[in-house]
Amino acid sequence: MIKSGTVALIGRPNAGKSTLLNALLQTKLAITSAKAQTTRNVILGVYNDDRGQIEFLDTPGFHQPKDALSSMMVKSTVATLKEVDLILFMLDINKKERAVDKSLYDLVKQTKSPVFAIVNKIDTMNKNHVIPLLEYYHKNYEFDEIIPLSALNKDNLDRLIEVTLNALPEQERLYPQEQLSQLTHHFYIAECIREKLLNLTNQEIPHSSAVMIDTLKFTDTACNVEATIVVEKDSQKGIVIGAKGSLKNEIIKQVSMELRRQYNMKINLTLYVKVDKDWRLKTSKINAYLNSNSSEYEQ
């Protein structure tokens, strides 16, 4: 009998959860950015080999909520903890311990699942400094395993897969071996647009923006997309569009290049920008912008 089970990737914003998911699956499922709170939805990524299957759940970064959007993100992370076989608690080795780490640790210890500490970004620190920090985690926390690695450089990922599979129950695969995720084309393209927006803007824009796919049509040779970037203020709309449309055109250029590589066809992307004042404070708006692109699995 093979090993199979569901594993939650949790931790503070920018701990490297999405980078790790992409590295483990050797494909880009989750967008990444230096901006905090990049991941807004729980994203499924399915790993398979001869030994079994791991259903990874990449969760939004755990933080102190400041509005309805961030509160919903934290709630989705907490809800995920109740339905997994194993929890991977990601820690950025460069960041000092904070109260939010202990709050999240207290939450995971209330579950019945084993908890592994994944100490990420060891490539950024001298080895002589890594060992004392690993000893600190061992002494002050009751983790079932402590695994140092570099998600960016893909160091020690084989060890992570091995101990993860060993911790999972013996049962059949939950998903077909050829299925990597449950992402829709709508969700993937919307996230691709949002990633470029995050990386090309600063200040309040990354947290104040959302992306909606208005229309999406595939032909034999082309992918035709109309999408809308939603912001909260008129001033933000001006920034996203840029002088004479420069920033919007750069987003279109970068998104089209990535989608062309992904789909191997011509990309026709039309991008609009609209203002929806204080949408992050309204639950109905949050649900509309976060969930409408990810309602069903598409091959």
Low-confidence stretches: 295-299
Termini, distance in Å? 28 Å
Total number of helices: 10
Residue fraction in strands: 15-25%
Descriptors:
Rossmann fold; GMP Synthetase, Chain A, domain 3; 10 helices; alpha/beta; 9 strands; 3-stranded mixed β-sheet; single chain
Describe the structure.
By secondary structure, the protein is of the alpha/beta class. It has 2 domains: about 5-165, Rossmann fold, CATH 3.40.50.300; about 185-290, K homology (KH) domain (GMP Synthetase, Chain A, domain 3). About 40% of the residues lie in helices and about 25% in strands. The chain is built from 10 helices and 9 strands. The chain has helices spanning about 15-25, 70-80, 100-110, 125-140, 155-165, 185-200, 205-210, 235-240, 245-265, 285-290; strands at about 5-10, 45-50, 50-60, 85-90, 115-120, 145-150, 210-220, 220-230, 265-275. Strands 2-3-1-4-5-6 form a 6-stranded mixed beta sheet, sandwiched between helices. Strands 7-8-9 form a 3-stranded mixed beta sheet. The longest helix has 18 residues, at about 245-265. It is globular, with a radius of gyration of 20 Å. Mean pLDDT is about 90; it is low at about 295-299.
Topology:
Blueprint lengths: L2 E9 L5 H9 L17 E7 L2 E7 L9 H13 L5 E7 L6 H11 L5 E6 L6 H14 L4 E4 L8 H11 L17 H16 L4 H4 L1 E9 L3 E10 L2 H8 L4 H18 L2 E10 L7 H9 L8
Parallel strand pairs: 1-3, 1-4, 4-5, 5-6, 8-9
Antiparallel strand pairs: 2-3, 7-8
Helix pairs in contact: 6-9
